[in-house]
């Protein structure tokens, strides 16, 4: 081995190894602090890029779930209102059938008509209040449910508007319908019978649409969970492994410092050649 006071090869080698150990230790500490083995593009550009795309998809599915939740709530309210209207029509049919009795006295017919009118007006109240987040699926307007189903907002599930207002097409009873006479009761009975059939069809459409929305919501949850697990598999640090690496590198660093100290003392031996 050459003796030189200008170049200390052992010290340079020890310093290089110590620097490498320090960098590895810093990387391990970062992994532990962040919980990630890949926290930037410098760690692994390809994997980081894939993880970022998956994170964007995950955020997109969060928006999808919000859209589905709003749509489900709107549809549920419309379904509840339509069910109540169907129940009211059944009650109205009972009153109308009773009013069709030719032997009914005037007092009883008047009482039946008052009950009929109250039930009729209740339909209008239900329709007016069947609103969620500014959307009413069963009033005289044109609101429809449109829920996005993918993170790019290119696919949707739609539920068409259903008019359940009095005289609006599905409910043939009008706002002025009465059963004050036997003839009026006969006309009202025909309208109610037709209305029950149409409202049942509306309930089927709304129910099928609501079921589709709920199925899509469950799927969105599953795919979001899968994406989140996939991101974790790509970038999450193995904390047990990182803990072991930390202890190993800390010991290695301490030994490296000692090795550098010993290497730095080597030139002192040259003095002994000069009788010092």
- Estimated structural class: mainly alpha
Please tell me how large the radius of gyration is. Answer: 39 Å
Termini separation (Å)?
21 Å
- Helix % is 55-70%
Number of strand elements: 4
* Total helical segments: 5
The main pleated sheet reads as: 2 strands, antiparallel
Mean pLDDT: 90
Strand-residue proportion: under 5%
Contiguous runs where pLDDT drops below 50 for at least 5 residues: none
Order of helices and strands: HHHEEEEHH
Q: How would you sum up the global shape?
A: rod-shaped
Order of the strands making up the biggest sheet: 1-2
Could you characterize what this model shows?
It is a single chain. A hairpin with a 2-residue loop joins strand 1 (131-132) and strand 2 (135-136). With 276 residues, the chain is mainly alpha-helical. The two termini are 21 Å apart. It has helices at 9-34, 45-99, 106-129, 182-235, 239-265; strands at residues 131-132, 135-136, 145-148, 156-159. 23% of the residues are buried. Helix 2 (45-99) packs antiparallel against helix 3 and helix 2 (45-99) runs antiparallel to helix 4 (182-235). The longest helix has 55 residues, at 45-99. The model has no long low-confidence stretch (mean pLDDT 90). The protein contains five helices and four strands, in the order αααββββαα. The strands form two sheets. It has a two-stranded antiparallel sheet.
